[in-house]
Structure formats: C-alpha cells, structure tokens
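Appendix B, Record 12. Input sequence as logged:
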Amino acid sequence: MDEQDTYLTITKQTEGFYKEKGSKFLGYAIPIESVEEVKEKIDALWKEHHNARHVCFAHIIGVKQPQIRANDDGEPSNSAGTPILNQIRSFEVTNTLVAVVRYYGGTKLGVSGLINAYKTAAREALENNTVEKRYIEHYYSITESYENISLLNRILEQQNVRIVNQDFGSSVSMTFAVRTTNSEQLLAQLTAKQLSEPTFIKTVQ
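Logged structural output:
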C-alpha cells in the first residue's frame, strides 16, 4: 500500500459455501478489532453449528505488528488454517477473521482436497464482502475556552480531524481522531496558535 497510515479491512460478516463428497464447508468472513473477539466469534459458531466436525480459522489483526494465527482444529497439519490464512493475505486485509465450519460427509478428502475446500469456502466468504480503506489514527482529548473554540475548530477542519465527542461545560472538552501522518503538523499548529495542549489517548488501527 502506498500510504503509510492506511490499511484495508472488511466491513461486515459474510458467508461462503463449498461442498465436496458430502462434506459441507461454510465460510465466514468477520471483521474484528482484537484477539479477544476471536474466541467469542468461534464460540458463537460452535453454538450455532454444534453438530459440525470442525471449525477451522485464521486471522490477521493490526497493521504495524500484526497478530497472525491459523488453526486447523484437528484437521491434518496445514490443511485448513493455512489455506484460510492465505486467502486473507491474498485480499490484503487486516482486522479480519475467517472461519470455515465443516460438516463431515462420510468420505475423506485427503490433504489436497481439504486444502482446496477450506481455501474455496474462505475465498467465497471474502469475495462476498466489501473491502474498505481506513486510516490509522491517533486519538487525543483537549479542553479549550469558548473564546478560542472557533480557532481550534478551524485548525481541526484544515487537518481533516474527526471529532469523536464534545462536552460543553464551563469550557469545551472534546475527543478527536487524526491520521497519524497528520498528527505532528496538527500539534505544531496548536502550539503556534497558543491553544491548549492535547492529551494523547491511544492509537487505533
């Protein structure tokens, strides 16, 4: 990708399907933000498909130092999780979990057959999704006087800052998100105009 603070991700949960020799493979492409969500989503699939033989999955989470995992769930080594992971990589997306539920049809498919089945179900689930470009953002909080709020808003607008929330009391408190590549310039502008210094909260990707 040409921009250092952008990444691609999926926008919703979508499904795919593949059938081979009686075995059914149901693919699910699911947007996630953290590793903690993975167990929750896989547990939900097991609850929905309690008669399934396997729920294999892979995920990529994060941009700079992505957390990557592939799980075969008892299938032969690298016959399920890795093909699923390779599909996520081929779509160049992150913050993405793809799981494939297998209902066994009574006939073994062999390793090559399994690889094709898990790959195909995963690919179809991803193909049915929408890929969106998003920005890595720094979140800040700032408190400013009413007399300076017009100037502050003008600067924030110039830098394409996204206002997350605002609170109007004796002064104006707000939380805003700015692209990481714009944050240094924004902070310099605020300092130059003698506005309040924002407090860094977190980086979201």
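The mean pLDDT is 94.
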